[in-house]
Batch of 2 targets.
Target 1
Amino acid sequence: MSNASSQALINFIHESPTPFHAVSKMIGQLEAAGYQPLYEQDSWSIQAGGRYYVTRNDSSLIAFKLGKIKLEESGFRMVGAHTDSPCLQVKPQPELNKSGCWQLGVAVYGGALLSPWFDRDLSLAGRVTFTHQGKVQSRLINIESPIAIIPNLAIHLNREANKGWAINQQTELPPIIACSDDIPFDLKALLAKQLFSEYGLQEVELLDYELSFYDNQKGNIVGLNNDFITSARLDNLLSCYTGLEALLHANDEQNCLLICTDHEEVGSCSACGADGPFLEQVLTRLMPDPSALSRCIEKSILVSADNAHAQHPNYPQKHDEQHAPKINAGPVIKINGNQRYASNSITAGIFRHLCQINQVPVQTFVTRSDMGCGSTIGPIAASKVGVKTVDIGLPTWAMHSIREVAGTKDVTYMMTILKAFYEIESLY
């Protein structure tokens, strides 16, 4: 079971090289399960027992199904995750001709671990905006073949390389895409060709784009006992996928909601980020009466699912030894007294009890007292909406690398517990 779930996750991530593609992939699965689209510019007619989804910016999604009890009486069981991952984004005027090579200028998105991006086969994907037949349109593109690489400098020319060095993001990261001796390179011409290849569109005028490079190598299951899953973007497509699978397979008794937002890696402050009004506005449209909405939120709980730092056997000192999660030992409750995580004793207790009754092992993470602590969408969503929140995640190595590592058993644990959460009758 764990290998099958992990392989399905690998396939999902491989087909989701950008947040736009991840949302598109989730839409396909939702519609196959009978979920109907809602559009923010339209009026909504919501039916009891209905299944719906709404997107914003093509990169954030809220999906929900209505159960048998009124929202103000039972609230929502919510799961939250984020669709974005650290990457290299293409600049607006990126073409560089240097030393006989064509390169593309890039900007680092999020807190990327940069050194693993060297010597990797890179592909390019994203959203392109253009005019066609007099109208402004957008499409997602994915140049699946490897078209670029960022070669390391040979050890002979950098004898100090193994002692570490600061990577200059402006000069050392532009990927090489071609030799410049043959023909001039025009990125917009390449994108127009891709639009024809994927959609049959001709005579388009490129206006703008949001493109990022990604690792062409598909994820894999590794280890002598198939213990590990290795892939790009496990943070946080792993949570998007397991949350979606739990929603699709949960029974129809409870009111269930999945929110997957963009821009978490850069602070969530956008119209489609967790620090924007997306969730609050959707909930308000479902319950225009302020009193009913307040009652619903008071009876709701949000599981903010984001990856957790697993203890690395080569660097055990980087963890508080009493709070050092292990891979394949179950999901992690994340605690921080300064509200970098939103868990409290009630929400953590509910989640821990849920794990106990479903025979899912559970762990706790608290960062070392002498180290800084990251954060998630949990505290942001809690403060924007007022919903009780617990921050959890699966243990991961190499977070924010171009290739991260998680446990195959943990993927199954997460699906099990999120499905149980969606189905639980009484929270406390």
Note: The chain has a mean pLDDT of 96.
Target 2
Amino acid sequence: MNIQLPTSNDEKDDDGKPKRTGTLWTASAHIITAVIGSGVLSLAWAMAQLGWIIGSISLILFSLITFYTSKLLADCYRNSDPVSGKRNSTYMSAVKSNLGKTQIWMCGVCQYAILCGTAVGYTITASISAASIHKSNCFHKKGHEADCSISYSIFMIAFGLIEVFFSQLPDFHNLSWLSVVAAIMSFTYSLIGIFLSLGQIVSGKGGTTTLAGTVIGVDVTSMEKMWHAFQALGNIAFAYSYSMVLLEIQDTLKCPPAENRVMKKATLIGVSTTTLFYMLCGCLGYAAFGNKAPGNMLTGFGFFEPFWLIDIGNLAIVIHLLGAYQVFSQPVFAIMEESAIRKWPALRLLTKETTVVRSTSFPIKISLFRLVWRTAFVVTSTVLAMMMPFFNDIMGLLGALGFWPLTVYFPIEMYMNQKKIRRLSGKGIVLQMLSLVCLLVSLAAAIGSTQGIVVNLGKYKPFQAKS
């Protein structure tokens, strides 16, 4: 997926690209950065809609499905031989190699729509957290009765400006440091949410919880219960989504050892770590807030004391999303730039780079084409976020649209093709049944999230949302 400048032969891999240097730990950092994102903040709300039984089971099942299908997808990085086979450095390349050209369009539309949508979702989330910092400090200085509301648009613009700078990093190979920082931040705000929830529970201020979640006639109507339950499934699916960048992450790994073996270990570390945090955040958050759990976990603790700790948590979210935005956007940047170079190979404007900072450890190079196109992408995602700042609905819709095709359907289909598994064999039937069940869950989640967006659009004025 990466556009590289020419290097000497001893610095090249078997496909002519510069030597890959990624390790188990850099891949794990990328995965944790991609998985533990804004989705963790909505898990307490999701638990409140589903209840203790279905909510807990859903968190575990989505985790197991994601881990299993990610292992199948990791085996699709190379064709035939796991060490010397042709590399598939992108998701679409793997689909083309294993399933043929007919399914590439479906894959491309799903993958890149979700990647672009995630950029919008992360801009929304970062602005909500940044606005919360402003609000808590305002209350602390002016008193709890002060009018401390502020437009989200200001923070979305600021987030976009920073992303314009980070977007000039050429590819995933330049993102390891950013992913490590982002992964540390994700642990930070998750732990803060967990300890704040524990503190609220221990102090006896926990909310009312039930086995089935929100109560019809008390908390919600019967129709709201259904829509919110569907949307909650989408939120959980989004929380585990990273399959659309799995092969791009795997393409950073050095060989030997075989990339698929390292990636499976990284997936185990990443998914098991995130599942632990998700269970703690979801269950403790639900216990702390009960059936009144907010859509964004950290905003539910109020804006008062300990205001500094909540500020740290929200700041960690913003820093994390600065890195996560890039992890999900780099594949979009790469596919557009590679397509342009293939179409106009003689146009030097597409490949010419100017070195701004000549540092051996961290050189900074600028490409005019990269500057213009990537800036346009960031501006577009920022404007869309300003138009539709609906946190839970957007998260649920993205999760619903991406979960079945990218996390389940394509990995299973490619695995069955590689291993020559017959559809009517025992294993083939089980795999197809798994795919069918996940399709139904994704459809339900998409319907619930779309309904929520439609309702919110009916009473919302664009660019005027405030904290």
Note: The radius of gyration is 22 Å.
